[in-house]
Structure formats: structure tokens, C-alpha cells
Specification:
Elements lengths: L1 E2 L2 E2 L16 E2 L20 H13 L11 H10 L11 H17 L18
Antiparallel strand pairs: 1-2, 1-3
Helix pairs in contact: 2-3
């Protein structure tokens, strides 16, 4: 995984703590199937974010990297800004971009959560 600017290799039974605000990413560097457990504290609405992103991907509404179109992403990101942010650009620029993109996305009918057709939409807080 990458933790800040440092690359680390994590094995079975290893525990990594990511301090709030620390940029990080992880991937499977091997050929075997990988399983891991993540605990997010405070969770805030992080689970709802994951449900939304996976439902969009399952319905083919994301690109090959798993990202929805920029205006739908702006609506989702604005709703989850307290849960997760990009490491770059600075938060102030991200807020500015979302202040412009999210209202346009909402006008186009995008919601901060996504439920596949036929499923009831989750309540948003």
C-alpha cells in the first residue's frame, strides 16, 4: 500500500493504521486472491458511499476505473466531503469545484446515493 509518500508491503496478520487526513491507497500486488478488513472510525456516511459506488459499478454506470461521470461524481463527493477527500488538489479547491459541479449534476437528476432500478432509494441524511 501507499501511505503518504511511503510504499509499504503488508502481509497476513499485519495491521496498518492510517491517521485522518493521510493520503493512502492499497492494491493487490500478488497473483492470489486478496481479502482484507478495513475499519473506518468515525464511519460517518462512508458505508453509504461504498454502497453507492459499488451499485453504480454493478449497473455499468462507471468507467473502467470504477468512476461515474464527473457531474454525478460531484454530487456524490459533495455529499460525502466529510467522509473522504482526494489528496490533491487542496480541500479549498475541491470545495470550489463541487460548489459548481454538484448543482449542475443535481439539475441533471443525479442523487448523492444510487439504488438500482426496482430497489427503494436509501434515505439521505
Amino acid at each position: 500500500m501507499k501511505l503518504g509518500r511511503k510504499k509499504i508491503e503488508v502481509g497476513p496478520e499485519d495491521v496498518v493504521v492510517v491517521e485522518p487526513g493521510t493520503p493512502h491507497k492499497f492494491w493487490n500486488a500478488g497473483d492470489d486472491e486478496l481479502h482484507f478488513v478495513t475499519v473506518v472510525r468515525p464511519a460517518l456516511q462512508f458505508e453509504r458511499l461504498l454502497e453507492t459506488m459499488f451499485a453504480l459499478a454493478a449497473d455499468g454506470k462507471t468507467n473502467r476505473k470504477g468512476m461515474p461521470n464527473p457531474l454525478r461524481l460531484a454530487v456524490i463527493a459533495k455529499a460525502h466531503f466529510d467522509d473522504v477527500r482526494l489528496p490533491f488538489p487542496p480541500s479549498s479547491l475541491q470545495r470550489l469545484g463541487l460548489a459548481v459541479g454538484a448543482p449542475i449534476g443535481r439539475l441533471l437528476g443525479y442523487e448523492p446515493t444510487y439504488a438500482p432500478a426496482g430497489e427503494p432509494a436509501a434515505a439521505t441524511v
